What we know:
This protein is of the alpha+beta class.
Amino acid sequence: MLLYCLDTVLTEKNNLQAAMDFNNQAIGQFLNGIVETRLADVCYQLTNIPIILEDLGFNYLYSIGLDPEQARQYSRNLKQIVKNNLDGDNHIKLTELIEKQQIVELVQSDKHKRLIAPMVSKGKIVGYCSFINTSFSAVDWLKMKQMSLIGSVSNYNKETILETELKLNIKGGLLEDMIYNRLTPVVLFKRARYIGVDLGKEYQFLVLKGDPNIYLNGKDPIGGMNLIEVFSRYFMERNLNILISEDSQNIAALMPVDLFSKYSINVDGFIRKLLCFLKEKYPDIPFKIGMSSRSKSLEDIPILYNEALISLDMNYQQKEITYFDDLGAVGILFRAGKMDDIRHFCNKMLSKLFEYDRGKESELTKTLYYYIKSGQNIYKTAKMMNLSNGGLRYRVQKICEILDADVNDLQTSYQLFLALQAAIILGDLKIE
């Protein structure tokens, strides 16, 4: 009996020591300012147990130690279990997890179990962290508890910083001052340094267009955070402290190219991943991004912002990401504000159609716009304009005759679409 007690005490001591060693190493990494994804990497190195991070809605965020697609499938399976809300052991445990914020062990299949803990910030769950294995020891439970606590503290710190910034509108206010040329470069650098933003030496503007009031089934899928918070947090979690601003329609971000280079991040690749992230979280919002050209002068910030806006307005073929550098001559004309030159370009491309429409009270110009916008698809265009396919074909043929153009000439279509977009912006063409 004494030997059994000694073995039990020794086991408990070893378990406690293992948990303390894990805690000390994880805490050390946290104090160095790592984010949840890197914390998961560190914990995997210490435990060799696969880890999955999920958001408040049990949507996959990140995994380590598992094939990403397999991890995504595990997240989908868990989400289905939560959605079905069936009675049984898992239902009881999920209630303890969600309502009581307790760590629980779930059986998801014959091949694996899940030890899942809530990540809490200010008393509310903001996400979940899971170990994936065939079984879990007492030490695994202790390690998960420590990881959950560290992750929760990390979330609390970030939420507090983000909330403070948004309430005070420090970054947004500074960015607006830059956009509207209210401050000298010297003052801008001082204020930026004060809030920990490195303005760098080369800049590019991003403007995101999307309706921040649209949520899935009337609910925000990211734990009560609105779009600007989710957008800001995405950058923060990647150690990219940048200036972000929001108005009623768009979110704008000044991208110091040097900062991305410092972390070996390709800006274009980063933007595509950002868009994929937002689309996954808000599938009902049709996001569009306009990207400016690059400049090494702070004095060009208003110009870069205007370029990003122009890229959104001149979005050929409704692309999700439009670069100002791809707009060619028309983009440059709009940036320069040379309205006479822009109108001259529009008239050169469209005057014959405008004259025909005015004389015949027809809608050939409008038809051309929808036809090119649909990718020269007869059926889609006919549906957009509530026409028969035959009627639409007749209009397209008439347009080709008037413009003396080949319907399959994509280059001509591209120039025409730019001219149509410019005409819309100038108010010369009304598209309902």
